[in-house]
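QA checklist item 7 of 12: single-chain prediction sanity check.
[x] sequence parsed
[x] length recorded as 67
[x] structure emitted
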Amino acid sequence: EPIPTHRLRRKLEAMLAGKEKEEDRVIIVKSSPRVQYQHWISVTTIIEQAGGIITLQLEKQETISVD
């Protein structure tokens, strides 16, 4: 669900509350090539400030239909 940037930190802090293991605080960031760099930086900064650990989804996903 889309979340306005100004509400993102509070939502992430609630989701990450009580999670002490690093693997439980990993946030996957997936963005379109059209996303402006400054917006991407703002969002990743918010994730780090909320206690999240950022990882990127780099592989391309593909759907294959088998007849």
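[x] summary fact logged: The first strand starts at residue 26 and ends at 29.
[ ] second reviewer sign-off
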